[in-house]
Design a protein that fits this description.
The chain has helices spanning 9-55, 64-88, 93-100, 102-112, 117-133, 142-168, 173-194, 201-226, 231-238, 241-253, 259-277. By secondary structure, the protein is mainly alpha-helical.
Length: 288
């Protein structure tokens, strides 16, 4: 019997990118019911239950430095997703992800140290300016943009901490512990925002879909892909996330963007590809 041929690694990465953005689209539909913090609680909590069951991390016998590292990881993880959901509550998915991508793009550009990266930073900044500078009927909520920028800063911090956690904790155990700690941290805020709606079957079902599509599926696909491809290629493929987010927003949320906004997203994608190709050691890890 012939063994099944595994999908090419780039296909796995693109599948992970699509999964994350479909999960974000579902989260956008969930936010009006239970708020950004309630949605964050659902994602972190259900993802934690899933990964704790799979990874079964060892909590005892850890060094104080390792505990401090995983707590910092939990804070970065919760802050990254919380600020992103606040942005989704105000601006379209494609715009939110594009602005958020400034964080890992700047990190990649800073890591490479090339003069050419000034060009990529200017190009990305021009794209964000195009997204936010238009007034009138197509005006973008500036508060939502600010939340997306904050999410980008948290994403950059998350990437740096993720690389350290990967060396200190085997497999997905560090991520599982961080998700559990993050859930405890946001629990009172999530309950205050969502209240009794958090246990509604429809809300639980959509929350489980967000946790699965935004965490479990992409994490697994990326893990398998990275075993079979260079980190630099992986980074370039992840740079397509803003475009994938815009397509997901259009397909699942009916969020139609203007031609100048699509052009602005293209500017950020091109800038991200250029910057990450020069910084193969800094991989823009997807949000968990």
């Amino acid at each position: 019997m012939n063994r099944a041929v595994p999908p090419p690694a780039p296909v796995l990465v693109l599948g992970a990118v699509a999964s994350v953005q479909i999960g974000a689209a579902i989260a956008t539909r969930l936010i009006p019911d239970i708020g950004p913090m309630g949605t964050l609680l659902m994602r972190l909590g259900l993802s934690a239950l899933l990964l704790l069951a799979v990874a079964r991390p060892r909590w005892s016998g850890r060094r104080r430095a390792d505990i401090g590292l995983v707590v910092a990881y939990a804070v970065a993880l919760a802050a990254m997703n919380g600020t992103f959901y606040e942005a989704l509550d105000r601006i379209p998915l494609g715009i939110a992800v594009t602005v958020e991508f400034i964080g890992p793009l700047a990190l990649a550009a800073g890591a490479s140290g090339r003069r050419l990266d000034i060009v990529w930073v200017v190009l990305a900044g021009s794209g964000v300016f195009l997204l936010t500078a238009v007034t009138g009927a197509h005006r973008v909520d500036i508060v939502g943009v600010e939340w997306a920028l904050a999410a980008g800063l948290c994403w950059a911090a998350y990437i740096l901490i993720t690389q350290r956690v990967g060396g200190a904790f085997p497999g997905a155990s560090g991520l599982a512990m961080a998700l559990a700690i993050g859930t405890v941290c946001v629990l009172p805020f999530g309950i205050a925002a969502g209240g009794a709606k958090l246990v509604h079957p429809g809300v639980l079902g959509r929350g489980a879909a967000v946790a699965l599509l935004s965490s479990a599926v992409p994490y697994s696909l990326e893990l398998y892909a990275l075993r079979r491809m260079r980190a630099s290629v992986f980074s370039v493929l992840l740079s397509l996330e803003p475009a994938m987010a815009a397509v997901s927003g259009l397909a699942f949320l009916g969020q139609h963007l203007q031609p100048h906004q699509w052009f602005a997203i293209a500017c950020v994608v091109i800038a991200s590809i250029g910057a990450t190709r020069g910084a193969p050691k800094v991989v823009p890890v997807d949000a968990a």
